[in-house]
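Data availability (excerpt). All sequences and predicted token strings are deposited with the supplementary files. A representative entry, XRE family transcriptional regulator, is shown inline so that the format can be inspected without opening the archive.
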Amino acid sequence: MNLSQNLKNKREEHSFSQEDIAQKLNVSRQSVSKWENGNCYPDLDNLISLSELYNISLDELVKGDKAFQKEIIIQNTDNKLQTTQWWALIPIIGMLYGLISMVLKHF
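Structure token line:
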């Protein structure tokens, strides 16, 4: 079972409408519909809130959706790479600034 099917099944098991879930999570009903149709995934905060609302573990909520698990891993890896690249630029900029100032002092 994938995440979207699991979200819909759990909502129906607890007799909630999409509007009920939307109000509890402070999101639009359309967002809940997109989650259940597989058009997009809820963010981590909403996944945690949903697991608490349904009294199940977060693992149980997302278990079985391999594509979603891979997407989270890829997003986390991308975020780490972007952060690492940003910090790598600071020493390079500092060295360039020092080099330029040394060259300008000699003229």
